[in-house]
Design brief:
By secondary structure, the chain is α+β, with helices and mostly antiparallel strands. The chain has a single domain (about 5-140), classed as Roll (Nuclear Transport Factor 2, Chain: A), CATH 3.10.450.50. The protein has helices at about 5-15, 20-40, 40-45, 65-70, and strands spanning about 50-55, 60-65, 75-95, 95-110, 110-125, 130-140. Strands 2-1-6-5-4-3 form a six-stranded mixed beta sheet. Strand 5 and strand 6 form a beta hairpin. The longest helix is centred in the N-terminal third of the chain and has 18 residues, at about 20-40.
Length: about 150
């Protein structure tokens, strides 16, 4: 079994655990989302995204859920590496968690390989009984420090 499938199985087990810590659940969902992006696994990625997703890339490109899925799975963007450098999950409300951090990202965009360090803010919410990402916004990290 690939590491991506193992991670997705872990996400399913953690998200169903009674009394689990919401911050740990969100981090597990975020890990599953990342694994699905790298594996180009549309069904797995789909399970981690809210219906009203708004995704803002570090270059300003803004996508809704359908456009994001089409671009990242078999489209113009193929993620090769997403390595968290720092992450912090904070509860905003009972059903909303704010995730902030920085990532090292390697992606092929329109056939061109790119690497970047990005800072991001993601918002996860409870939807249909599961944590799902509803918003993402990233920006290039300053050259002197990849963490916020």
């Amino acid at each position: 079994m690939s590491w991506a499938k193992r991670l997705i199985c872990l996400f399913i087990a953690v998200s169903g655990a009674a009394g689990a810590d919401p911050m740990q659940e969100v981090l597990a969902v975020d890990d599953a989302r990342t694994a699905a992006l790298i594996a180009a696994d549309r069904p797995a990625l789909d399970r981690t995204l809210a219906r009203e997703l708004r995704y803002v890339h570090s270059n300003g490109l803004t996508q809704d859920r359908a456009t994001y899925l089409d671009a990242t799975i078999g489209g113009t963007m193929q993620y090769r590496v997403i390595r968290p450098l720092q992450r912090q999950a904070r509860p905003i409300a009972e059903t909303v968690v704010l995730l902030t951090g920085s990532n090292h990202v390697e992606v092929v965009l329109n056939g061109r390989p790119l690497q970047a360090e990005v800072l991001y803010t993601a918002v996860y919410l409870q939807e249909d009984g599961a944590w799902k990402m509803t918003a993402w916004q990233s920006t290039p990290a300053p050259a002197e420090s990849p963490t916020p």
